[in-house]
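Help wanted!
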Amino acid sequence: MTSDIANLPTKYEARETENAIYKFWEDNSFFKADNNSKKPPYSIVIPPPNVTGILHMGHALDETLQDVLTRYHRMKGYEALWLPGCDHAGIATQNVVEKQLAKEGKNRHELGRQKFLEITWDWANKHKDRILEQCKLLGASFDLSRKRFTLDEGCSKAVKKVFVDLYNKGLIYKGSYIVNWCPRCQSAISDIETEYETEEGNLWEISYPLKDEMGAIVIATTRPETMFGDVAVAVNPNDFKYKDLIGKKCVIPLTGREIPIIADEYVDKSFGTGALKITPAHDPNDFEVGRRHNLPFIKVIDEQGKMIARQEVHPELHGKDRYDARERTIRMLKAHEVLVRITPHEHNVGKCQRCNTTIEPLLSEQWFVKMEPLAKPAIEAVKNGSIEFVPKRWEKNYLMWMENIRDWCISRQLWWGHQIPAYYHKKTGEMVVSTENPDPENYTQDTDVLDTWFSSGLWPFSTMGWPDTDSADFKKFYPTTTLVTGFDIIFFWVARMITMGLEFTGKPPFSTVYIHGLIRDENGQKMSKSKGNTIDPVEIIEKYGCDALRFTLASLCTYGGQDIKLSDERFEYGRNFANKIWNASRFVLMNLTKSADELNLDLSSLSNADKWILNELNNTIKLVNENIQNYRIGEVASILYDFFWNSYCDWYVELSKIEKNEAVLVCVLDKFLKLLHPIMPHITEKIWQLIPENKDAKAIMLSDFPEYDARLEFKEAKEQIEALFEAVRSLRNIRSEFNVIPGAKINIQIVGGEKLFKGVVEYLKRLAKVENIEFLASAPSDSQAASVVVGDVKIIVPLKGVINVEEEIARQNKKLQKLEAELKSLEGRMNNQKFVSSAPADVVSATKTRIEEIKLAAGKINELISNFR
RNA sequence: GGGCGUUUAGCUCAGUUGGUAGAGCGCCUCCCUUACAAGGAGGAUGUCGGGAGUUCGAGCCUCUCAACGCCCACCA
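Answered by r_m:
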């Protein structure tokens, strides 16, 4: 055994280990959750990645955090389920398949719905597993036996039931409204799928002549081509400029159609000319005005973004694209001398989130979910704490959106998705909303499909067997525990899951929403393929290892959930740590002399060094548990890094080279590996299995997570060992500053420190390269020596011929000055009556203690200095 | 227009109830010391964005100003 370990490479081969370890877990079905278990449940559902997607850094972060939580709770004794799956991604997938068809010179309309769906299903089936396979490279301990797809049978059943129930409750309705229409996707999209971009445009002022009298009213618009759909000109009722015109009529230039001049509070007197043309079929605000005033809706732009050939539209524009039509309209207006003024104007233009095409607000028949009644309990659940956001600030964001919620347009004019379960009688047109077609002979199904987010909104329960509420998974694992995601989909996804979960299961779908930051490039830019600034997690894994990737990402997760700026080199941090763990473990394990059953920890025979490291370990255990439970994953990473590197390797392993307690050495390593396992699962599994005591155990991932143990608090030993470290550091500093040859030994005199240092003489000798130690009661005078004060102990290093007296005095003075500055400030504090009376007692006493310490040390330094004189 | 975030060492960032600052990288000096050069030892570096206030005491709380970033709203 030990010889095997000695033969292990000094450079940790991450990929080799990781592949083997992952296979080991998978082959043993360790990720499979048991819905029959007596253990308390802990469950997470994955934010289903798009079926079109390939793994990016955002996923890597998201999945890492979910895996950390899952593994932690599994070790803590929970029945842990992390449920994986994919989203059918309506528009994204259809776009991909259509592009592919276009290459072959085909389009979906030629193929027909049936054939197109077959092709798309083939494509989806081929790609569905790709991203989850990639997640395996991340070490994901999700339960693939429960893998789901938003378009699978179970999810589809849930979707139909939810739709029909909401319809029957009057919470889904169909109607003609202004929607965001994407002329490229050929579909309506929801408000939150519309992103606004600032564009340089113009404000065109156009003169609309009054009817039957002299004069005109000048309106301002950014979209002159929509003038053919105007049904009124509106002014503010309190605008004295236009007071006399209200109720009169004016004439649309170029076509001569007469429209009324109306008054509406919506109009801003100070903007443009204060007169606004009303085009209810092509502007959401005008739509509202139109409804208020019972105006007709005249649609002049079609679903392709082209001008409709109808009598209201000037014949020259029939069939012209909206932008071409704008140019032509302007030319005609100029020719007719009704274009009064053109002012450059910056304004926001809505773009399709998927394809960045400028959306066209369009009057169209769509399905909507009435959100307000659904939002109410969803607001309440967050306000009363049944659902908690981490960090807390996102609650405000969520609440503000929910409190101003607008109805959700859920129909999409696509083919890929859940077809809306509404059926129309072929002859009468009568509509039936039902999970099944009432009579396929005579009824045809609505051709629209549902917004992708409609099905992902059901994800936490549709994946658990719902609507079968007796299903074992639903009973055991719903509601889920934690939801982990980025803030960018709080509205799209989190809010919808909460509303739907509460409405259909009566329970919040999860109790905590853990929101992490977004991954950005080193300049803080969003990573995107088009910018070419992406870092591919698969490449990073190949280069640095999966555990290195995970550890680096985890360490960058701050409590505030800040965005994470990444560059390739940052992963060296995790890789170096993995390598350090590897080598320290190798060293410890290959030098074991005892057999497994001799390695039991005996608390009655511990040296101070042993007590010190156990004390540090115990403290680390406490901090790790606390921090992980508070979602402070970055803190956990740095606590473990610090403990292992600085306490265990730099000190305890070094001490063990002088005198070792193999049981402690191994016990601490074993516990540390468990603490780290959730973040770095592979290397910890690998090494843990090399520990002789664990040879019959199954796996670290199934072991118990370490718990704080009051028996391992050793305050005195800690003080003594830390004094040793302080002395060693000081002696090394002296060696370095006085250029003592690295290999040369020094002699030292310790004054008044027998009690503190007698027991650690060997350590002192080895760690500071000391030949002889002489314990003295008082310091010898006028020695040519460098010295240091540790607590109330003086350590003197005679350096005849090496020492420059002036330099040493200067060195000591510098230390003295530092102490005196601190002393002055502390004494100032103590002399302040208000501080003494109002500061907490422990702060006051700590200040007193510190003052005594400083005085003591300063006194010793002064003695040292006077020895030179 | 409303909301949120950021501003701390040369760089990237930590810093949980207020008790006078930390890490990694980089930098300087030295070292292949019986695990690790992806390493070891030692070292330098900060009026914590500006200003005001509360407090015995402020990187942290309040106000204000500035710069940058994000989200929501969408005045044509």
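OP: Thanks! One thing I noticed: The longest helix of chain A spans residues 805-831.
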